[in-house]
């Protein structure tokens, strides 16, 4: 375990045992370290790869995660901004993406995921809304298309250009998790209870920017049962404006994930990017078919 994490843990207790190192996908994400403390306490220590990720995660734990309810998220035990280290409590359960659950349990987990995300999206409702411009959107799209031209076929690039031709509709800004996926949902089969981890991508954005678009195009669009369960928990279906925004943000996220995954040897992320692109293609075909029939 890095010396910076040893120093952070020692600011809390002199009695601890490093239990395990949990490597993360890719070649630049630091490992997470599992630690046993006194009186049966269990913690995880992390060194963030950069100051932005550190600030986001600390801000989320200090200001936003309380909205999700007691016992639903880890607690921040110690933090050192100089070394970008955090120590957080462990939560019960196993990552949902590693489990093969009966259909009823899986739907229950997704319903709870929707409910918890709806709570989280209310946590920063009173914060000022940053202004976004059409020019900034166009520039971001152009730069991404240029970066990914070597990795994606022309028909996918053309599809993304079409979806991103106009900036997404202006939507309310919320506290968004940023990587709200089953890998970050801890399901306790005994309690039948879901908890959420990993807030280093949390920021103040439209809910469609990552939370809703990523989940939609990686999982929900081809699992109508889980889509229904999730939105029942979330409290409502997506609006027309949110669906348009999800399509634009999802298209860019797919290319960005493909680019990042290839460059940093994250095979899982590359697979997820291809799933997003395929689901976007399928959605486009369905719209064309419906339009032709009408």
From TrEMBL:
Domain Aminoglycoside phosphotransferase: 24-237
Signal sequence, start to end: none
Keywords from the named record: Transferase
Record keyword Iron present: no
Domain of life of the native organism: Bacteria
Any one GO molecular-function label of the UniProt entry: transferase activity
Pfam families in the cross-refs: APH
Protein name: Phosphotransferase family enzyme
Source organism of this protein record: Streptomyces capillispiralis
